[in-house]
From TrEMBL:
Alphabetized UniProt keyword annotations: Acetylation, Fatty acid metabolism, Isomerase, Lipid metabolism, Mitochondrion, Transit peptide
GO process annotations (BP): fatty acid beta-oxidation
Role: Key enzyme of fatty acid beta-oxidation. Able to isomerize both 3-cis (3Z) and 3-trans (3E) double bonds into the 2-trans (2E) form in a range of enoyl-CoA species, with a preference for (3Z)-enoyl-CoAs over (3E)-enoyl-CoAs. The catalytic efficiency of this enzyme is not affected by the fatty acyl chain length.
Name this protein carries in UniProt: Enoyl-CoA delta isomerase 1, mitochondrial
Species the sequence originates in: Phaedon cochleariae
Main location: mitochondrion
Amino acid sequence: MALLCFQSLRMLRSGIRCMSQNAQLVSLTVNDKTGVATLSLQRPPVNSLNLELLTEISSALTEATDNNSRGLILTSTNDGVFSAGLDILEMYKPNLDRVKEFWTKLQETWIKLYQTAYPTVAVINGHSPAGGCLLALSCEHRIMVKNFTIGLNETRLGIVAPPWFIASMVNVIGQRQSERALTLGHMFTTEEAKNVGLIDEIVQNKAEGTTQAEAFIQKFAKIPFQARSLTKTWLRNKTVESLVKNREDDLNMFLQVVTQPNAQESLGHYIQSLKNKATK
Ligand SMILES: CCCCC/C=C\CCC/C=C/CC(=O)SCCNC(=O)CCNC(=O)[C@H](O)C(C)(C)COP(=O)(O)OP(=O)(O)OC[C@H]1O[C@@H](n2cnc3c(N)ncnc32)[C@H](O)[C@@H]1OP(=O)(O)O
């Protein structure tokens, strides 16, 4: 409690204000001087995206809009893992009602993040496989700390990246590079990701990443907000519409693929291999 008060006091002095008071799995703060919001994922141990975390991310994105944020930095409180992607336990031997809600919330969160009116920057301060990579790809600018990995590795798990995951990558690195990366399930090192254009900047640490992210958002200070946001909407509309118009089909396809016995078997082996690795 004392620590909380001390932290709040320190944040107030530096002009950082806490939003999302009820959130537990994310923190949302805003810098009152710049109007830039920071959304930090904080679901230990690896920010895997379960229904509850997705719900909090989605609410925080709306709150940043309602608060007229000038920009948003997406990052993790865990220096080591940005996000481990979708929580595999949501997809393994799933409860049907819950897994439907989970996928629908994932769709909603992606649509919101992909279309925010404000500029978005991912400060990728750790590994970022699969759904973690999707979050980063949905931002407008990606800054990554050295010595980590990022990519859409679904095929390695025996599952398939849905078309909107694929489109998010194609829009950033193009068809040829995406085809190679996705079919192999390749995880790029920070250096490789920079070379292929998957990320825009390499930094030494999160603090440097945050400074660079603020500088990126500051570039838009003199660009009229609505002109910018409408341009972004039109640039991204085709990609988003392809999901918006087919959400039910996408959900059904996901349920069909993920409940296949061979997909369940692959997920089961994968969970076990992660557990074995963790206990070594
Ligand atoms: C139109 C429709 C098309 C069809 C759709 C069909 C199919 C569905 C497509 C679904 C798409 C899925 C995308 C995904 O995001 S799948 C998830 C992919 N994620 C991964 O492969 C990452 C796995 N994790 C790791 O590689 C590592 O954990 C790490 C992120 C590099 C971090 O390493 P480290 O810090 O060393 O941590 P540990 O490995 O020791 O893990 C700690 C702890 O966390 C558990 N865990 C890790 N990742 C996940 C996860 N994604 N979900 C749930 N749990 C995870 C791990 O098991 C350890 O647990 P214990 O402490 O209990 O042992």
